[in-house]
Amino acid sequence: MSELDDFFFGDPEVLAALDNIERQHNVREKCGTRDREKLASTSGPLPGSLPTRPWPSYAEAAGAGVPQASLSRGLQAPASAKTNSAPLHGRNTLQLERSKGASSLSKGRTGAGPPPAPAQKRGPTVKVTAVLLPGARLGFRFEYNEALIGTIKRIEGREYDAARKLWTVPQKRRDEALRALQSCAQCSVEVEDLPQIVSTVLQAAALQPDESEMYGLIPGDMERQMMEFQREGVKFALSHGGRVLLADEMGLGKTVQAIALMACYKEDWPCLIITPSSLREQWADALNRWLGITDDDIHIVYEKKDTAISGTSFQFLIISYDYVSKMKEDLERRRFQVIVCDESHYIKNHKAVRTKQTVPLLKQARRCILCSGTPALSRPIEILQQMLALLPRAKVTLDRFSERYCQGSRWSKLAGASNLDELHSLCTSTFMKRRLKKDVLDQLPAKMRQQIFLQLTEKDMGPVNDVLCELEKVKQALKQGQHEGGDVSGVKLEEKRLLNKLYFTSAHSKIAAVQEYVNDLLENEEKFLIFAHHQCLLDGIEQCLRKKRVKFIRIDGSTASHERQGLVTSFQENESCKAAVLSIRAAGQGLTLTAAHLVIFAELSWTPGEIVQAEDRAHRIGQADSVSVHFLHARNTIDDIIWQTIQHKLDNVGQTLNGCQEKLQVEAGSCGPRQIHGQGKLAPPPEPRAAAAARRADEILDGLESGAKRQKASCQQTQTLFDVWKQNPLAP
User: Fold this and answer.
1) Which GO terms describe its cellular component (predicted)?
2) Which helix (H) or strand (E) holds 36?
3) What's the angle, vertex CA 403, arms to CA 400 and CA 405, rounded to 5?
4) Are 178 and 74 in the same domain?
5) pLDDT tens for residues 50-65?
6) Terminus-to-terminus CA distance in the chain, angstroms?
7) Would residue 112 count as lying in a domain?
8) Secondary structure of 658-694 in the HEC alphabet?
9) Is there a single domain that holds both residue 377 and residue 267?
């Protein structure tokens, strides 16, 4: 409350302006003579007409036309008015409004004089709308105004976005830009700031530490083999405190980036890796190839007996989403500070048990790395739980998020989508790094091959181990017969028969593991081709797709020729047709299936040319993207032998035709082959599996390709691959 000496008395211009304010407000009628006399008797003689409403504020007086000279004189009330505290029409004091940032009129009573008048706004009111943009930038949209343009040009880092027709500044300059716009002297500015939910998330993200200096902790060999966009992904994550969603499209190496981040945070080990069950072995193998982590430091949970981790020493714990709830107490007790969630769209549903059990673990971890090529498969609401896991301080509620981004209907407030550009900009500015293949195509090879290692159960491996034992006996008999110089042709035929039997038995044993992999793959909703040779495996894949009610096509030896083109057209043009189940030999040539960028081999062929031809169903003229090729490999099966054999054949024919060795190159790594042993594994072999596979394959090749038979087989292989090479001389 101000005192009576805050008022202006004795200046006709002031009183005239006050009368003008009274007329504008129409609050009361002007006082008559009798009122003025009554007021003078209580407060002393007052000149002129005095309104009975409270005195206006400094800002009101300035806006009503009071001359600046009159305001600056600082006129005082008469002494009688200062000493008389009698109420004025029932008011003890009169309240003055104060504009934002202005000092009180009663301030400075020590002789310094009254405060200066605030700057007067002239010109029209201009509305400025703030817009969040990708790349950590903020845009301001307004009608053309030279004064505002001049103001914003003085801000460091400002740019004009011709496509969007607005001015942009770095997000870190947001407050500076708002102050500059609002203080523009040539016009009044009305700013429509960012929505509250956007501001809240930005503020939470700003609290994350910038740890870019830790990039140097990545092992040198690994860093040199990474692609430039992968290095950028790691740097983005470090600049956001290790809390990131790596949302690159499938095939761009999210696993490699996550492992590089874990290497940077070695002081926070041990690490927890949560992944779909079909990818557990893949993570263990990647850790070995990139960081040299042996199985002594990796614990994989396959079944209930592996869940007892209390008192167990390891650097990496790999579990599936299903085991998070089963191991909740042990996981909470360990308090992992680095957690990786592969295929993090598994926690998209806020009602699902695995989401309720997983998200709290992610919130409490110091570093949280989510990986998903499709973090939101169909609706914006699917990314909310991942946002909450990475930015727990934001405290975004389901209602606030759905109101802004889901455009709910009367039937479901979570089913719709709205303000998607803003949501994309918000995610990419605060926690998400996403690149498409087309964005980094110049850095990608035409084909990216990768081995996916499947884990078969002891029950599935039983028939395979029986055939391997028979094969070992025959091999010993063959060696003995060759040593004694006897006829071994019958023994060789038996060995060949057993190899064919092992080929079929391995395919049958892989059915359950391949189905599990396909189920996980369907979560991504990406089109794919999946090849197999045996009918039992093709049937198992088809059964899995039908159970999931996924639209697919199947082409094998029983498919009529006149039906094939119709099936191909359906796959190419129908977006809902997600899979093509194909026979390696029957559908490996002559078909164009470029709608898919992912090719999967559920089993291998003995002839590398057939594999290359099958890959090229997707990698053909008209395919604008790089093609990812996944080989589903089950260790200690025929896959070990065939993989080594086709590499051997490619070496021979490549040296003959091209003057250099050729291989089916798969994803590179910094370290040698992974050695499987230690805890959490089923039936570990006595020697490294890769070495055992190579030795076994070489021995079989030595037996099959001896003498004239070996020479004849080599000629046939060379002719087959030469025919393939003539059709596609640049094929790997």
Assistant:
1) nuclear replication fork
2) helix 33-43
3) 100
4) no
5) 444 444 444 444 444 4
6) 86
7) no
8) CCCCCCCCCCCCCCCCCCCCCCCCCCCCCCCHHHHHH
9) yes
Q: Assess whether pLDDT exceeds 60 at residue 48.
A: no
Task: Say which CATH number the domain at 144 has.
Answer: 3.40.1170.30
Instruction: Establish if 673 belongs to a structural domain.
Output: yes
d(CA 284, CA 298): 7
The whole-number pLDDT of residue 38 equals 47
Same domain (yes/no): 575, 531: yes
Task: Select from 648, 630, 616, 246 the least CA-distant residue to 427.
Answer: 246
pLDDT above 70 for 202: yes
Relative to beta strand 298-300, strand 316-320 is parallel
389 and 491 inside one domain:
no
Q: Cα separations (Å) of 673 from 33, 133, 195, 289, 315?
A: 106, 45, 52, 7, 19
- Please indicate, yes or no, whether residues 599 and 686 belong to a single structural domain of this protein: yes
Q: What is the mean pLDDT of residues 338-354?
A: 93
Same domain, 435 and 495: no
Question: Does residue 550 lie within any of the structural domains?
Answer: yes
162 shares its domain with 248: no
Q: What is the DSSP letter of 303?
A: S
Strand order in the sheet with 577-583: 447-454, 627-634, 598-601, 528-532, 577-583, 551-555
Structural domain that includes position 487: 454-500
Q: State the pLDDT confidence band at 189, using cuts at 50, 70 and 90.
A: confident
Residues 603-656 pLDDT 10s: 998 888 888 888 888 876 556 677 889 999 999 999 998 988 877 766 554 444
Instruction: Identify whether residues 286 and 334 lie together within a single domain.
Output: yes
The answer on pLDDT for 545 being more than 50 is: yes
* Measured distance CA(181)–CA(174) in Å, rounded: 11
Structure tokens at 176: 């500076």
Is the backbone peptide bond immediately before 124 cis, with ω within 30 degrees of 0? Answer: no
Give the phi and the psi of residue 54 in degrees, each rounded to 5: -55, 150
